[in-house]
Amino acid sequence: MNLTINWSQVNWLALTPEMIILGFSIIVLLGELFLSKTSKHMLGAVTLVGLVASLVSLGYIWNLQATEFNGMFSVDLTANVLKAILLVTTALVVLGVLKVNVLMGEGEFFSLLLFSVLGTMFMASSADLIMLFIALELTVLPSYILTASKKTRQSTEAALKYFLLGMISSVILLYGMTLLFGLTGETNFAAIAGKLAGHPIQPALVASMLMIVVGLGFKIAAVPFHFWAPDVYEGSPIPVASYLAAGPKAGGFAAIIHLFPLAFGVVAPAWAGVFAILAVASMVVGNLVALSQTHVRRLLGYSAVAHTGYLLVGLAVATKLGYASLIFYFLVYSLAALGAFLVVLALAERGFGENLKDFAGFSRRAPMLALAMAIFMFSLVGVPPFAGFMGKLYLFREAVRSDLIWLAIVGVLNSVISFGYYVTVIRQMYLVSPSEGEAVARMQVSKPLFASIMIIMAAVIVLGVYPNAFLSIIKL
Amino acid sequence: MNYLSIILLLPVLSFLVLVVFGKKWGEKSAYVSIGAMVVSFALSIYALLFVMGGGHTEITFTWASIGSFKLTFGLLLDALSAMMLVVVTIVSLLVQIFSFGYMHGDKRIGWFYACLSMFTASMLLLVYSPNYVQIYMAWEGVGVFSYLLIGFWFEKRSASDAAKKAFMVTRFGDLGFGVGLVLLYIVAGTLDMDKVFAMHLPEATAALIAILFFCGAVGKSAQFPLHVWLPDAMEGPTPVSALIHSATMVAAGVYLVARSYPLFEMGPVSLEVVAIIGTITAFMAATIALTATDIKKVLAYSTISQLGYMMMGLGVGAYAAGVFHLMTHAFFKPLLFLGAGSVIHAVHSQEIFDMGGLGKKMKITSITFLIGGLALAGIPPFAGFWSKDEILAGAFASGHITIFIFGLLTVLLTAFYTFRLIFIVFFGKPRGHHGDHAHESPAVMSMPLIILGFFALTAGLIGSPFAQNAFQGFIAHGHEAEAPNYMVMGASCIIALIGIGFAYMKYMTNVLPSNVISKDNFFYKLLVNKYYMDEFYYYALIVPTHAVARAALAFDQKVVDGAVNGVAWVSMQFGKGLRHIQTGYVQNYALYMVIGLVVLLIWSIKILGLF
Q1: Residue B481 pLDDT > 60, yes or no?
Q2: d(Cα B186, Cα B181) in Å, to the nearest integer?
Q3: I need a labelling partner for B13 at 20 to 30 A (CA). Which of A123, A177, A321, B192 fits?
Q4: Top-level EC class, please (chain A) (predicted)?
Q5: Choosing among A175, A201, A291, which should be mutated to test the B contact, i.e. which has the most B CBs within 10 A?
Q6: Is there a contact between B63 and A466 if contact means CB atoms under 8 Å apart?
Q7: Is the confidence at residue A279, as pLDDT, over 80?
Q8: Does residue A263 lie in a domain region?
Q9: Is the dihedral of CA B109, B110, B116, B119 positive or negative?
Q10: How crowded is residue A94: how many other Cβ atoms within 10 Å of its Cβ?
Q11: Taking the model in full, what pTM does it have?
């Protein structure tokens, strides 16, 4: 192992998106310290600029393929696409909360957000176990703090659960990594694959693989490692929940796509099967439990678990097209879920509750937001012509082509079940009148939040009607 | 960006802008829409010149790919589409200018122009189509905007009913078209036109698919027996009737047949069907037009009849003649509609027996209407004569003598009902007081009439023997026009003059005894009631459909809902059971995670056969 780095030969271009985020997170943190209270509200805009700048630089290196720092950090199209999705969704969150009270210092909030984004981006580019672990911790540690930032009993409880379970999963993950290092003496994904090739499979390798599945499965909230998700989605401040629902999972999926086919290539049938089992468990548990939820964010939390299930179909298929379908579906899901959370945020900002009954008469209070929410729900179910339909079409088609027809059937049946609870939301908004005596006045929404929701709605429609707009970019 | 896509995108853009700002801008919306159309029209002329110079363009984008199945979207520019581009954009442009006067003061004028723009865009998309998926999409697109525009004054019950009727009846034909598409995809494995046309499909299969496509055309082009929606569609604003229900959308069916001509030729039986349906339509609609008393209804039936002629031409193998008639008709029929609009605007009535003697009060309208009438009746050198004559000559030359005779009879009827209209409306003395304050329409309305009048006078000449049938040579390489048949020309010309003569005797003099057309006559009743087609559909289709719908409702409420609710209840119970796992205790959660890990470990080791 070469432990020295020739700094002059590092292709810094490959790291520009990360460097920009790092720079801005420090600027925002310093802003919290040095800016006067009245000018701190600018920090949201600064964060947005940073995210957009990072996105632009990412576009500049879109087709770059590079491995830097002795194989620690690698850039490829998969990583770039997932980073782009992360940056776009996070930018939409930041845009949405520009005029919203984030319950803590703006500088703290936005810098923690950026640190978490940075960790996720490094996760997406990890080509080494050590790098992966550090990046993962960098992703989750700010999330724990963000979750607790509401300082209510519920928020603290959710954060504590998130933290404890996160630690347990990190420990298991680290143990799995140690086993792998013990078996091969390597930490680099490609080097591990090289060492394992041609040798008989040892049970310790399988154990190591599964421990890593647990660690990353926790990140993406797959059943049975999902328990934190509903509590956190419900308990954390809504801006945080919006961020957690969409972006950070990109890191988990990117890590799985990079690590498993390469380092665990020799036990591919095992992990493909494991992901199929987790897919079914996540879909079934997520959708069935969501049916009986009355708190909208908790409902969305279980819906997120179910969608992790759909996404895992792409991993169970274990083909290049399967991963590409996963990425497309990830974008489609993130947009709709994020949109739904932002709509909940818009309601909460005007003092409405977050239970299903609080959505009664929403279509008259805010017709455009109700329309957007209905479209997000339809997209999550997978109704054409919205993006969710195309996403599911590609995923399930890959399952069918890889002789996993049963998995596709389970997926479709689950989509049917999910109709039950998504439609409840739409029914509440359009058909149920608010309780008597309550005046139905037009609801005011802050302009940035409204803009963010409208952008997401447009994207959900465009991706459904013209998926090639995105597919040609990711070269699916 | 290619100029061909700009032709298409400008009206789309105008639609998007007007949907947002139309309400705010009011009448100023017209400038956006008309401006877009001016540029599209100019570019269409350029495209036509390009094709006349021997050019040919095909651009394709991939719209969605699902495995090996690719949905493409394309812009095909050849002689047929170039001609249609020009026709669609010029008529749309003139109609939009005319509407500026006609729709003056309407509250929803922004929406009106938005719809006109998007209708035009859909029509252009249809014309451009190099594949059947796109044509089908655009086909439905024009249907939707036709629906919206027929029902533009939806406060009027009859208008919204007419819009629904048009939508449903054409949908009936589209059913056939849709089945045809699926069948074609199964047989040919592609829906790209050039690939389909290069194949050698079995004759019977090709004929079946072609006839199914023709079903769609029957609906859209208001052919017998699905013609019943077009007269009702006259509830829309008159400029809409001029654009959609005379020149463009109703011609889409004819265009579909013309575009798919190689497919029809693969199964020649289908062409016989086209010819027969076209002839029945031409003759039947002309007879109904004899008794109609609403100025727009007369023109509507004449449109149906002329579309029948086009189908007849295509069916008997006179491909170029059919397309030629489409083109000339697209000039003189909007002229007649806009002229009728000008008259309605002046007298505030559509009943021809409320009018009379308007010729003196509305000089431009009456002269241009007369030009349109002469073109429709088929008097040389007006546009309609040359194209109609080509169709008749084609029918004669191909040995379809019965069709030829009915074609000639229809010429007689056409001349009669056209001049019945002209004599009653523009000549003689005013009837009643509707026309007391009639005066010529403003320039914004009369200018389009003059321009269309010019084309109604001259457009036919480019396909006449004087120009060596230049049009036919341009549009149909390989389908060369027949040598001019002067016998047919003379016959149709004389017959048309006889028709005009009868109309003159009946309505301008008292030479014909009034009992020639007695109102108790069986035939008269049959015609006034439009062969009882609407009644037939009511009892044969609508009443049984309602009965089936009620039965289906009962089944749905009792059986289907019961099953669905049962499944939902079971899922809910499972969900409630699973919910108890979420205890809230971190210790439990950690335990579940470890149990998960162990289960997966055992399963993996078994799968890999390690123990």
Answers
A1: no
A2: 9
A3: B192
A4: translocase
A5: A291
A6: yes
A7: yes
A8: yes
A9: negative
A10: 29
A11: 0.72
User: What is the rounded average pLDDT for all residues in chain B?
Assistant: 83
Handedness of CA B358, B359, B361, B364 (dihedral sign): positive
Fill in the amino acid letter for A246: A
Total domains, chain A: 1
Nearest C-alpha neighbor of A236 from the set A252, A223, A254, A248: A248
For A224, the closest of B592, B604, B607 (CB atoms) is B592
Tens of pLDDT, residues B53-91: 877 888 888 777 766 667 788 888 888 888 889 989 998
Cα B491-B492-B494 angle, rounded to 5 deg: 65
Query: Which residues face A188 on adjacent strands?
Result: A128
- Determine, yes or no, domain membership for A5: no
By Cβ distance, the residue of B67, B579, B601 closest to A207 is B601
Write out the H or E segment, with its range, that includes residue A210. Answer: helix A203-220
In this structure, are residues A246 and A334 in contact, taking their beta carbons and an 8 Å threshold? yes
Cβ atoms of B112 and B103 within 8 Å: the answer is yes
Per-residue b or e along A124-136, where b marks 16 or more CB atoms closer than 10 Å to that residue's CB: bbbbbbebbbbbb
Domain contains A300: yes
* Nearest CB neighbour to A292, from listed B572, B592, B601: B572
Three-state SS for B192? strand
Q: Test B572 with A291 for CB contact under 8 angstroms.
A: yes
Cα separation, A366 vs B368, whole angstroms = 53
User: Which residues 377-406 on chain A approach chain B with CB closer than 8 angstroms?
Assistant: 390, 393-394, 397, 401
Task: Return the DSSP state at B381.
Answer: T
Distance CA B381, CA B387 (A): 11
Burial category of A432 from C-beta neighbours within 10 Å (exposed 0-12, middle 13-18, buried 19 and up): middle
Asked if A213 and A161 count as a contact pair (C-beta separation under 8 A), the reply is no
At A186 the three-state DSSP class reads: coil
Q: Residue A57's domain spans which residues?
A: 10-474
Chain centre to alpha carbon of residue B303: 11
ipTM: 0.84
Residue B555, burial from CB neighbour count under 10 angstroms (0-12, 13-18, 19+): exposed
| 3 state SS of B294 | strand
Residue A120 in any domain: the answer is yes
Residues 266-325 in A contacting B (C-alpha not used; CB under 8 Å): 267, 269-271, 273-274, 277, 285, 288-292
B301 in Cβ contact with B285 (< 8 Å): yes
d(CA B82, CA B376): 24
Best interface-test mutation with B: which of A173, A289, A418, A470 has the largest number of B CBs within 10 A?
A289
A177 within 8 A of B584, measured Cβ to Cβ: no
Indicate yes or no: CB of B66 within 8 angstroms of CB of A394: yes
